[in-house]
Amino acid sequence: MKKQKRDMQERAFARGYRAGVERRSKDLAPPVGPVRDAWLAGWREGRADHWDGYTGVSGVHKIAV
């Protein structure tokens, strides 16, 4: 199995980060659980990076794919 399929919380964080940078609503977070917490943490960091101007080419280094 691939590493990204094994660590669901890391994957949720990355998806939340992308949603935050793309200015999507936090209502899109998964239902209750540790995956939701990771998603919201990523969303908050993504929103902060968006507000700080890390969008487009300047934010490429922040995305861990």
UniProtKB/TrEMBL annotation:
**InterPro entries xrefs:** Ribosome_modulation_factor, RMF_sf
Transmembrane stretches, start-end: none
Q: Where in the cell is it found?
A: Cytoplasm
List keywords of the entry alphabetically: Cytoplasm, Translation regulation
Could you tell me the superkingdom of the organism this chain comes from? Bacteria
- Pfam families the UniProt entry points to: RMF
Q: Does the keyword Mitochondrion apply?
A: no
- Could you give a single Gene Ontology term from the biological process aspect? regulation of translation
State its role.
During stationary phase, converts 70S ribosomes to an inactive dimeric form (100S ribosomes).
Q: What is this protein called?
A: Ribosome modulation factor
Q: What is the lineage of its organism?
A: Bacteria, Pseudomonadati, Pseudomonadota, Gammaproteobacteria, Oceanospirillales
